[in-house]
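step=predict obj=SDR family oxidoreductase n=286
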Amino acid sequence: MTRINDLFSVEGKRIVVTGGASGIGYAIAEAMTMNGALVGIVDMSAERMEAAAQRLAQIGRRPELACANLANPDEARASLEGLHRVLGGLDVLFANAGISGGPGFLGADGARVEANRFEAIDPGVLERTLSVNVGSVFHSAQAVVPLMKAAGQGRIVVTSSISASKTELMVGSAYVASKGAVGMLVRQLAHELAGYGILVNAICPGPTATQIAGGRLQDAAMQDVLGRFAPLGRIASPQDIQGVALLLASRAGDYITGTEITVDGGTHLGPVAVPDGRDRVSRGEG
């Protein structure tokens, strides 16, 4: 019989988190650090990384840092290969870096926003969103797969979104398209890499209070609006993602691959009847 502390242990594992200086990425790095993992962080902001490193050093070992734009394949490879050397290997990559693709066609009041209609989207928004949300995952995976193949094992965990599998009203089409592509990439990689002992999965959050989209989901009024549309009555905090991250990084996740795990407070289920007779409508941004 396996004890739960052993089953979910990440003690001594070499783990890299991209976009790890804030939001969901920082929460993942925090969970791994607190539980004894050797952590590396990749982020575009050296200032944010240093602040994150100082906080993490207070609860465990200080993380190793690498500043890079992961939408650039050369920077992705250099940063991840460098952390692989410093950490003495790589057991888990959390490919978390991502950006918003702009607001959707409905505003918080439920009315259509003319400026956000599909035909008004700047092509540059699509290009940038795909470059970061899809490109960073693609380039990060390409950098670490040879290293994991050589080790005969490894795990890649991608931060995706419920937008990968549902239409959205308050989330821009560029973001939805990017996360749909990420979902398919996760399944494709899981299928190809299983024979090398490499597991590939995705975590799909619903609305979460992070710095994405300029931090608009950290606004109390916006949280109140979106929280009413989730069956559990609130949006997520980054810490709500920590349990699933530990599952996928530990022995507890040994037989899980090609899976997208939804963590959204039930938002994907749709409208919910509430005591005053009104319906909640799922309109979140993951």
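step=describe
Strands lie at 14-18, 38-43, 64-67, 92-95, 154-159, 198-205, 260-263, 272-273, 279-280.
step=end
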